[in-house]
Amino acid sequence: MNTHHNLRPGLALDRPLRIALVGAGARGAAYAGLVAQAPSGAVIVAVAEPRERQREQIAAEHGLPPEALFEDWHELATAGRVADAVIIATQDADHVEPALVFAGLGYDILLEKPLALSAADCVRIGEAVRAAEVTLAVCHVMRYTRYTKKLVELIDQGAVGDVIGVQHLEPIGWWHFAHSYVRGNWNSIRQGSPMLLAKSSHDIDWLAHVIGRRALRVSSFGALTHFRHDRRPEGAAARCVDCKLSDSCAYAAQKLYVEGRYGEPARDYFTLVAADGLDEESVARALREGPYGRCVYDHDNDVCDNQVVNIEYEGGVTASFTVTAFTPQENRHTRVFGSGGQLTGDGRHIEVLDFATNETTRHDTDAEGASAADGHGGGDRGLIEDFCRGLSEGRPELITSDAEASVASHRVVFAAEEARLGGKIVKL
Prior knowledge:
Blueprint: E1 18-22, H1 26-37, E2 43-48, H2 52-62, E3 69-70, H3 73-77, E4 85-88, H4 96-104, E5 108-111, H5 119-132, E6 136-138, H6 146-156, E7 163-171, H7 174-182, H8 195-198, H9 201-211, E8 215-223, H10 253-257, H11 264-275, H12 280-289, E9 306-313, E10 318-324, E11 333-338, E12 341-345, E13 349-354, E14 359-364, H13 379-393, H14 403-422, E15 426-427
Parallel strand pairs: 1-2, 1-4, 2-3, 4-5, 5-6, 7-10
Antiparallel strand pairs: 7-11, 8-9, 8-15, 9-10, 11-12, 12-13, 13-14
Helix pairs in contact: 1-2, 1-13, 4-5, 5-14, 9-14
C-alpha cells in the first residue's frame, strides 16, 4: 500500500488525498469547494479558521466532525498528522509562519499568492520546502486555465516563430479596484503590500511562464493618481449613503453592494466580502459603519492605481506590462510578437497571424469569467484539479507553479517596486 503523503514521480496514492484548510475566507472556501468537486476524489478533512461562522460553514459543507475544527492554525499543527496536504489561504501577511511550520511537518502545501511580503521571506519558504522535500504549489491560477495551456502550446509549437516581445494588459476594472484596493484589505503598502504584489504577481508570473526565460532587468513607473483626498468632489460626503453625488459617482458603494448594477454574481461575491452577509440588514450596516461604505476619495489607501513594468529576459526578449484601475473588469489582453507571426489573446480567444501566409487562425478556449467571483477564467478549478491529481497520481509535471518558479517571479515583482520607487533599472 502506498501511504506516502509527498509527491513522488510515478508513485500514486491508493486512497483519497486528504487536505486540511487553513483560512476559510472567500478564497479558502472557494478552493475547498473545488477540492470536493475534483475528479481525483480528494477530500477536505480539517479546517483552521478563527471565525466561527466560516469554520462551521466549512464543517457543514464537507461533513467534518467537531474534532476536525480548529480555531487557529497552530492548533491544527500540534494536533498530530491529520492530512497529506494543506491549503494556506490566510491574509497575505500571515503566509510565512504557517508555510514554514507545515513544511517542517511534512505537509505538501498549496499556498495562496503572494508567497510573502518580502523577497527574503519568499526565499525562506523556498528553502524550507526544499529542505523538507515537500511539494509547494502557489496559487498562480492564470497558469492553469485552458486559455493559458493552449497559448503556451501554440508558442511551443512555433506558431509565431521565436518570441521577440510581449505586450500584456491587466484591466482590473474601476469598481473592482475601488472595492479591493481603495476600500479593501489590499489598499495599503504601509500595512500590507504594493498593488503589484497583491494583484499582479499573477501576471508577472504568467509572463515568465509564457516566455520561458529568466528575467535579467526590470524598470517600472506608477503612482496613486486618482483615489486621493485632493480629488474628492466638492460636496461629497464621507459615506456614500449620505452623499448627494452618489447617483453621478462611478464609485458609489450602493451601485456595487446594493443595486447590483455590475451583474448579480459579481455583486453577491463582493457584497459578501464587504458585509459578511447578503441580507439587507447586514449590507446596510456595512455601508453605514464599515470601510466599504466610505468615500473612495476619503480613505487611507496608498497603493498605485496605474503602473507599468518593463522586463528584459535572457536572449533579449522583452515584455511590457500595464496594470490599471481605469477599465471595465475583463480578461487580460496580450500580444506576443514573434519572428514568424503575432499572437493576440483576450483570455478566451487566441488569434495567430502567420507572416508567411498572411492568414489568421482563431482558437476559442471557451474560458469562464475573469474575476474571482467567476473562478479566474477557470484557473481556480484548473489549479485545484492539477494540484490534487499531481499529488494523487505522482505527476509533478502537472504542478507548474512550484516553489522555484514562484520565488523567481516574486523577485521580479520586488525588483519592479524597487525600480519604481528609486527611478532606476534593477538588475536581477
